Structure formats: C-alpha cells, structure tokens
Amino acid sequence: MHPSHAFRRRPLVAVIGDGTVGEEAPAYLMARRLGALLIDGGYRIITGGLGGVMEAACRGAHESLHYREGDTVALLPTLNPKDANPWVDIVIPTGLGHARNVLVASAEAVVAIGGGAGTLSEMAFAWIYGRLLVALVGVGGWSEKLAGHSIDERGGLGREKEACVLCASTPEEVLFLLKERV
C-alpha cells in the first residue's frame, strides 16, 4: 500500500498562552475545552509543555472520547523532560528557552489564549510564517490585544490568506475557524 493511503496525518495546532493561570481561571477553562474539541475535530496539539494554558489544552485532549496516545506534544524550553505537565504524551526537551517559540509557532495553526511576552513572541512568529493565527478574547493578555488586528502591514509568508489575527470568543468558534481554513 502506498504510504499516503495508509493513514491521514492529522493537522497540528499550537495552543499558546499564559503558563501561570490556575484551574479556575477563564483562560484555563477555555484552553481545557479547546483541547477536547481539537482532538474531537481530528487535530493534534502542540504546546510549550508547561503549566497554565498549556496544561489545560493537553488535559482537555485527554478528556476527549477520540483521544489517542500521541495527541499531545510538548516542546519544552528546558532539557529536563520532567518539566512537562502530566498531560503531555510526547515530550521534546529542547533546552532552547524562549527560542523554542519559533518551533511551536510553526504548527499548521496557532491559537492564543491570553498570555504575556512569550505568547506575544509565538504570535509574532506565527504571523511571520503565515500560519493561521486565532486569538481567544475574554481572557486578557496578548490574545485580547491582537485579536482582529494586523501585527504589521507586511504580513508574512502566505499572509494573503488572512489580513489580521482572527478573533474567537469561544473554543467552539476556534474549531469552526480551523475547520473552515486548515
């Protein structure tokens, strides 16, 4: 059998955001719901592998009825695989610190949920590389500030597809945008 007929590779969606939010925070709850919806929708998830939004997305993935081992991937900033949150299936300890943000942002699509400077850098890399970039609103941080705006007038590779950071107010809206564009 030809390799292309053996399986269909599931698209990889990066979920980025505040790594310090607790389990009751709106950003955590949205990321958790999004994680389950992404797996239900046939995607895999990549994160920076730490806590907060990253943990929530991976945890939500595990809660999906369609979850399969290998659905959550972490590109850790450290060299210690034990730094990964407990919901990560595949741990890649890069030792690159924030420089690994460029790798996270190279997924087929990037979803930002809140976030600080690290999230901002990932959003900028996603923009430069012409990735579909969706920002959840209602949670503050850089996703709130950049939703509906262009990061710059140049755009990036393939920027003709989207002229601005797409805006979503619910995880369900994120999934709709992904299904429509990825």
Fold and architecture overview:
By secondary structure, this protein is α/β, with parallel strands linked by helices. The chain is 35% helix and 18% strand. A 7-stranded parallel beta sheet has the order 4-3-2-1-5-6-7, sandwiched between helices. Helix 3 (53-63) links the parallel strand 2 and strand 3. The radius of gyration is 15 Å and the shape is globular. The two termini are 27 Å apart. 47% of the residues are buried. The model has no long low-confidence stretch (mean pLDDT 93).
**Overall morphology:** globular
Strand content: 15-25%
Residue-averaged pLDDT, rounded? 93
- Order of strands, widest sheet: 4-3-2-1-5-6-7
| Strand segment count | 7
Q: Class by helix and strand content?
A: alpha/beta
Q: Share of helix among residues? A: 25-40%
The biggest sheet, with number of strands, parallel, antiparallel or mixed sense and barrel status, is: 7 strands, parallel
SS summary, helix count: 7
Order of helices and strands: HEHEHEEHEHEHEH
Question: Which residues form runs of ≥5 with pLDDT under 50?
Answer: none
Task: Quote the distance from N terminus to C terminus.
Answer: 27 Å
Report Rg. Answer: 15 Å
Keywords for this entry:
182 residues; alpha/beta; 7-stranded parallel β-sheet; 7 helices; 7 strands; 35% helix; globular
Layout of helices and strands:
Elements: H1 3-6, E1 12-17, H2 26-40, E2 44-47, H3 53-63, E3 72-76, E4 90-93, H4 101-104, E5 109-113, H5 117-128, E6 132-136, H6 141-146, E7 166-168, H7 171-181
